[in-house]
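#struct-help
A.M.: can someone run this one for me? Single chain, 122 residues.
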Amino acid sequence: MERRIQRHVVCERGDLPPGGLRSFRVGGRRIAVACLADGSYRAVADTCPHEMSSLANGRVEKMLVSNEVGRIRAADDKCVIICPWHNFEFDLDTGQSPCEPDRLRIATYRAEVEEDEVVVYA
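D.P.: on it. Structure tokens below:
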């Protein structure tokens, strides 16, 4: 049976400012919603697949990337959510673990601002 995607208002824009991260109950699921520094929002499953910790209790950081051996920098446009228990990281756009992309992944959901409300489609 196919599940229909529904629109869920989770909060007002001002309730989750840049740098904010919170857990919401959305359609029977726990979803972590993050507001990035540029004011855009990302929504992912709020459960780390490693040992089921709430990712909303973790933190959001720029993804570390490298174009050459020995040089690491923070990505301009990629962020990860980091689990508070064991520091597992997940790309906020794809849900994949940068370290183990074939093994560890979380669900991602579309998040938008509509008339000053943060809306998640799940």
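A.M.: thanks! The domain at 7-121 is CATH 2.102.10.10 (Rieske Iron-sulfur Protein).
D.P.: also worth noting: Residues 58 and 87 are 8 Å apart (CA to CA).
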